[in-house]
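Tip: read the tokens left to right.
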């Protein structure tokens, strides 16, 4: 491991929400420093104007255009651009010799036909799909370590995968219905009628009743056929956070003791995944408020009978669902201790 080596990073799309989270994490990272915060729309303006909570960490540093950025001096790039806009920029960065973590959806799905189905676009760089590592370390650590390109992971997919990963690895899943609730920041910084806070606040809204494009990642990475999966996405009254409730039908009878053993075996070695206690009852299933601002994921479960269980996970969508997992992946790619820069505790109450 490169425990003392220093690395330089550039961030594309640094003015957005996930770009701001990357800046927040890297502001205190001991081995990765930001040499350029790239933003076409904010070029020339101080970082602290767009991200006022970071003003003291990036004093005198302005957003720059891509052409102004010292790309050739950097070791790694974080690309936080919109879906469909990222792939060609990623290709340029790889050609310049950088390692790349792409937070968009452009490299999450390894089949260009599947990408077209879910995103309605022809993939701009299908030639790079095979070399991209899916960027969820709990699932894909070995491939990430040796990758030059790591994809981002959908926040709803992250929460869903972490909820049912132990059962999928054990081959125990007959079917799963995922009921996912998400905070408003999942919609990004540009408001729409559906996402703008005055319209969304205090509402209970179903966004997708039966399926969501992040379901494609769950199917791909857990090797579960889509006919065994469904996902309902709803809004919740929060800025941050995702809660995924997985109603699982098992293909084998299990006791609660056996279920605990399966989850403990999988997650006892994971630095950012914690199991919720069986008691007290109000803490058995995780509330996203308990992980806000951190890279943690909480998982809790209960057995209804010997073939049905409810598994619930909670993450901060901007952290473990985006920028946190991106930095976690970058640490692995650069040979840095995986937890570096990511051991901040959640903020509570909030």
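Filled-in amino acids:
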């Amino acid at each position: 491991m490169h425990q003392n080596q220093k690395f330089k990073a550039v961030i594309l799309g640094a003015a957005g929400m996930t770009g701001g989270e990357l800046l927040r994490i890297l502001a205190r990272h001991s081995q990765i420093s930001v040499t350029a915060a790239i933003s076409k729309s904010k070029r020339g303006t101080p970082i602290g104007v767009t991200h006022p909570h970071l003003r003291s960490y990036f004093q005198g540093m302005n957003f720059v255009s891509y052409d102004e950025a010292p790309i050739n001096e950097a070791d790694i790039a974080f690309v936080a651009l919109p879906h469909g806009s990222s792939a060609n920029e990623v290709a340029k960065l790889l050609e310049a010799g950088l390692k790349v973590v792409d937070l968009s959806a452009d490299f999450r799905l390894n089949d260009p036909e599947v990408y077209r189905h879910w995103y309605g676009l022809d993939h701009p760089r299908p030639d790079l799909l095979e070399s991209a590592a899916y960027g969820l370390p709990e699932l894909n650590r070995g491939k990430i370590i040796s990758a030059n390109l790591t994809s981002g992971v959908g926040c709803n997919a992250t929460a869903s995968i972490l909820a049912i990963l132990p059962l999928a690895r054990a081959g125990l899943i007959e079917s799963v219905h995922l009921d996912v609730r998400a905070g408003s920041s999942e919609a990004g910084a540009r408001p729409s009628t559906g996402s703008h806070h005055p319209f969304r606040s205090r509402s209970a809204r179903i966004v997708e009743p039966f399926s969501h494009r992040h379901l494609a990642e769950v199917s791909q990475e857990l090797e579960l056929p889509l006919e065994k999966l469904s996902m309902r996405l709803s809004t919740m009254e929060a800025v941050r956070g995702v809660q995924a409730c997985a109603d699982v039908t098992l293909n084998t009878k299990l006791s609660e003791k056996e279920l605990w053993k399966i989850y403990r075996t999988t997650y006892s070695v994971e630095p950012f995944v914690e199991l919720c206690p069986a008691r007290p009852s109000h803490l058995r299933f995780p509330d996203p408020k308990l992980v806000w601002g951190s890279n943690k994921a909480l998982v809790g479960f209960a057995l209804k009978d010997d073939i049905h269980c409810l598994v619930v996970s909670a993450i901060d969508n901007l952290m473990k669902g985006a920028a946190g997992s991106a930095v976690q992946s970058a640490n692995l790619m650069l040979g840095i201790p995986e937890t570096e820069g990511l051991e901040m505790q959640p903020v509570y109450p909030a």
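The mean pLDDT is 94. The radius of gyration is 20 Å.
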